[in-house]
Amino acid sequence: MKPDVAARLLQALAPWRNAPAWHIAFSGGLDSTVLLHLLASLANTQTLPPLRAVHVHHGLQAAADAWPAHCQAVCDSLGVPLRLMRVQVRPGASLERAARDARYQAFMQAMGAGEVLFTGQHRDDQAETLLFRLLRGAGVRGLAAMPEHRPLAQGHLVRPLLAFSRSELEAYAQQHQLHWIEDPSNVDPRFSRNYLRHRVLPSLTERWPQAITQLARTAEHMAEALGLLDELAQMDLQRAGQPSAFPWLPLPSLALEPLRQLSDARQRNVLRYWLTPLTRLPDSDHWTGWNALRDAKGDAQPLWRLADGQMQRSGERIWWLPTTWSTFSDASVSWPDPQQPLELMGNGQLRFIGRAPEGPLVVRYRQGGEIFDVPGRGRRDLKRLLNESGLPGFVRGRLPLVYRGEQLLAVPSVAGAWTRSVDDGQLDWLPQSCDQGLS
The pTM is what? Predict the structure, then answer.
């Protein structure tokens, strides 16, 4: 005989009981209502982290305007603080996806370091997700469906109800006389997931009563296979992840030659693993872009455009450039006091280490034909010097050049060993950070 729902949930929560705080994504529907009631009840008998509920109001349908008041009443009755967050859903090809993106952005804002967000997806949701992705031709990563836990912002997203069926949650709700919201959009068959939930899965379970359990089990097998593929990818990344010659450049990069030594399937595996935190992954047909990037001639500068940025190649190295990298202004900027660091719009910070030259100075960007005075070598073409340094081409247009009048006075020391000091000071450039968090 199975332990009761509360005992099983408490066991699933064991790894997270030392977190600074617990948040629950509380929509007011059946799943999150049962989860909230369970957590609040356990808190009466167990020592648990502080519990807070978060309700995200999307503003997509009139009926939803009444839901915050319902959620507040439920939380008040259970003694759980509620945070209401209103979001704007950007229109796009998939309203479901846009709403989900907006919702998770709100959740990330609500979370602190090490904190946990619980969501109410259950076994039926897992089976539905697997079937939905199977019909879209997903690979192992997609068919692993929803993981029990994953990183989110500075904390963790945890789905503690994946081992529970919807019928178990309904029975618990009825036993405790819980009231929940029925979202009208959840029965609209125009949405693919609703069609699967109300038309396809009932037919499957009529013929195969254990279909939902078996589908969820398949997702577990796929998650295990994904874990093995990720371990292989980590081994391959150790070889390809050797540091670049430009450690100051805040962009992810890999050495190309170790990747070339792998089979095509293994190359795709390691790149999927590497790209997952950086961008939405390409579909099968789009991987031809990787082949073109990999096989281009050494003097070419090919790129592979992806959903949230692009991969560029420079010599025998590939670099990831997020969309934010291209957002900077190349207009000239005056530097009235070189004693103080200068913030460059979308391009980091410029400063002098040691003694700074007298101002005012001007920061400009490459136009072509610049000549630079190199100690012991005389006047040299800046383009040739950059070629000698091996600086990737996509960085060169962002390289800040410091002028006094029409004289090119200084180039950042990161550009190469040929850079000279100016009045006993060294020009230093800290490029724009490109940290990027994407699920």
Answer: 0.81
